[in-house]
Amino acid sequence: MAEWFSKEDYTVAWICALAPELVAAAAMLDEAYAPPAAFRQDPNDSNVYSYGRIGQHKIVVPASTTATNLLRSFPKIRFGLMVGIGGGIPARIVEDSTDDIRLGDVVVSMPHGEYGGVVQYDHGKIVHEGQFVYAGSLGKPPAILLQAIQSVQKQHDMRGSSIPQLLGEILKERPRMDVKYRRPNTEDHLYQAEYEHPADVKNCSRCDARHLVQRLARESDEPVIHYGLIGSADRVMLHGPTRDKLRTEKNIICLEMEAAGLMDSFPCLVIRGISDYADSHKSDRWHGYASIVAAGYAKELLNFVPELAREPTAVELMSVSDR
Predict the structure, then answer these.
(1) Can you give the CATH number for the domain in which 39 is found?
(2) 51, CA 20 to 30 Å: which among 27, 76, 100, 320?
C-alpha cells in the first residue's frame, strides 16, 4: 500500500456494487495501492475507490455502478469491467450440455444479432399489434476486449481455466474468506419454471422434489464459461416463466440489475457469476462463490489485454458514439 501513482496511470475501471463483489475484486489484485498522489476527487463524484494492479494494468475499483462521475475523476480510463453476480436462465433443452447454465458458472456479455451484449429488457415501446420492442442496449465492448476474449477461449480449450487455481490460492492465503467464498456444499437444484416457492419459507426445505428438473451430473465442479446476451433491469427477476420467455424471444442467458445504469455507451464488458436461477427459489447462498469466479475470469481476461501506448479513453469513445 505504500506506492503512489497519478490518476492518469489508472486505465481500467472494475465496477461492482455488492460487498461480496468488492471483496472478490480486492482478492484478485496482484498489488493494492494507496490513493493517487495529490489526488483531488471531482466535487460531483461521491464514489469511494480502491486501487491496485493486475498484470500491467492499474485498476480503480469504485463501489458504484455509474460511470459519469468515475470518468470525471479518472479521465484516462479505457474501459470498464462490470463484475459480479447474476441470475442464470437455464437451457431450453436439458440434454444440451453446451447451453447448460448452472450455479457457479460464469456468463460474459457478447454481441448477438442487433445487440451489443447487454439488453435493458424493461425499457422499450409497444408498437403494432401490441408487440413490445426493447429500446435499451449497451454498446459493443471495445475491440481490444473482444480480441482478448478470443485468447481466453483459446487458453480454456487448450489448457483449461485458471479460475480454480486462483480460487485455491486466494482461500489458502486468506482463510477467513473460506466460509463465504468456497463453492457451497449444497446441491444445485433447478425447479420447473411454473413451480413457485412456498410463501413465507426462507429455504427450499419444503419445496416439492417432484418439480425438480432432472439434469445429468457434470464430470467436474469447475465453472463453465458461457458467452451471450445479458438482460438488465432495475428490478429483481423472481419469475421462472417470464425468465424463460426472455431466453426464447431474445436469446438472453443471464439477468442482472446494474448494467442498465451504464446504458450511456460507456465501453464496458459485463461478467456475471451465476448465483441463482432468477426464479422464486432465489437465495443468497451462492453469492460469495459466484462473485469470486466472476472476478477470476476478469483477471484471466486482463492478462490478455495489452497496455497500449495510446489507446482511446472511455470519454473519447463515448464522444464518438454521440456524433
Answers:
(1) 3.40.50.1580
(2) 320
